[in-house]
């Protein structure tokens, strides 16, 4: 196998193609027609599958196979893709044998309902930790990226990686996002924060913050029951590189990726400050003790 390219080189190579994918997603959004739903899913967000999901994944797969043919790849639509069988592997490798992951449309339900806060999220994973993540918001003409130990950055879609500015989330709104299955802790936070419960507050007409609100300053924290490598764990990595606090639900350090199952971390607490983290930790601990 050839020498593994650097994570920055992989991002630099993929960025122009991801920008094309972003323009495609933006163009298609008003025209989108849903394909048949993906099997039995636990919530309506993950049940939504669109033409854009499949097309964007196919684009990234073609670029990867043509440029980094030895790289590992796992995309959300791997079951629908004709390219999956051509990749060397779809799982985590040993140290230095990177796995690229892709959520071609994160927030498919937001996308289908015409909201602006959907994303294309591509990550590069090592055996123990994320090495890099790029999250593009096509409708907002912005993208965020982070490199392991190298900080987080923000730029418009016209910018190269080098032109992006360090991501500084200085005045996050006092709002907390509760992911699926975490609504039981809402009451213990409402005296200090605006609590947004994704399961009950989602509206097809009025846009509410999704998890990417941690990067835009629309949220000062989030509680996620299961941190999928493809989306929530990837966004949490960017937040962590921007100086936020990210732990498991009990306040522990995040486990090495290779110890996790089903491409997913245990629950995540994502907080802008120590005080917010303490509030979230207290709420989740009181919830667990009440179970």
Characterize this entry briefly.
This protein is an alpha+beta fold and 291 residues long. The chain has seven helices and 14 strands. The termini are far apart.
CATH class category name of the largest domain: Alpha Beta
Task: Estimate nothing, just give the exact number of structural domains.
Answer: 2
Strand order of the largest sheet: 1-2-3-4-5-6-7
Can you give the helix content as a percent range?
25-40%
Q: Roughly what is the average pLDDT, rounded to an integer?
A: 90
Q: What is the 3D shape?
A: globular
CATH architecture of the largest domain: 2-Layer Sandwich
Low-confidence stretches: none
What name does the CATH topology of the largest domain carry?
Fructose-1,6-Bisphosphatase, Chain A, domain 1
Number of helices: 7
Percent strand equals 15-25%
**Cα-atom Rg, whole angstroms?**
18 Å
Largest sheet composition: 7 strands, mixed
SSE class: alpha+beta
